Description:
- By secondary structure, the chain is α/β, with parallel strands linked by helices.
- The chain has two domains: 3-223 and 300-319, Rossmann fold (3-Layer(aba) Sandwich), CATH 3.40.50; 229-275.
- It contains 14 helices and eight strands.
- Strands 3-4-2-5-1-6-7-8 form an eight-stranded mixed β-sheet, sandwiched between helices.
Amino acid sequence: xxxxVVTGKGGTxxxxxxxxxxxxxxxxxxxxxxxxxxxxxxxxxIFDLPPLPYEERRIAVAPSGGDVYALAIDPEDAMLEYxxxxxxxxxxxxxxxxxxxxxxxxxxxxxxRDVLVTGKTTEAVRRRNRNGRRVYDAVVLDAPxxxxxxxxxxxxxxxxxxxxxxxxxxxxxxxxxxxKSPETAVxxxxxxxxxxxxxxxxxxxxxxxxxxxxxxxxVNMVRESQxxxxxxxxxxxxxxxxxxxxxxxxxxxxxxxxEATALAEALAEEVVEHAHRTxxxxxxxxxxxxxxxxxxxxxxxxDGVDLAGLYELAETIxxxxxx
Length: 323
């Protein structure tokens, strides 16, 4: 795979997973480009960098060597580049930009904005150096949320009413040939909750129906169970005995008498709640399995996602075979 498109419902950690995937793919001496298109400067925040300009620059060294470059695509700059590439009108394009024509054009034809940003991404996928070698071993695209991903990637259909021939149509066809190729994979990020899982399943179905290639499902922020399965089964069926907790608290010298009983009852409620959540997560895993895609699980980081945590997630991705 050369183009990895990462999408997911808001709040699932889509940008974090995209960044970790880029690090994992670059491991071992490769060169990977990480692209964002929503103007949130999420990549800069994750890597603790100042806001990124519209240029490709190295932002991280991957485990075992390798470089991660980043590009924050600005639709206006992408349009100026497009005008220069196809019409030789960069200077005129800047004049149009000052007049607000660029914003006007992308407002009345939102599909054109998507063509610009996906076009810049797929150009990086195709780009070669003077020796004929690919400039990047892989490109990771931090894409829009799941609800918009099919429309975002299905550029040929989106510009059908805008241009039926000429450079715009040819450009969109070229973009589509990359996006729908066997070298592209659309990955989904979710958490083990009902709404994100259902949105993921809907997104997979939409991507498939549009002829786009689904990749894998990244289950993010997974919490490991702290209790043996036997205790969880007892708690889920209402057979958990707080008396065992009382004995344990007394034996450990943590509490005694009425205090031990009260503490044991509070802990028992926590155990029951934990058991129910574990059962719900098991059901959501089974739902995700129905999509028939590879699934990768990333742990919930207790201290949050700092740079060290990002490298930890990258190593988890690599060891699970997702990169």
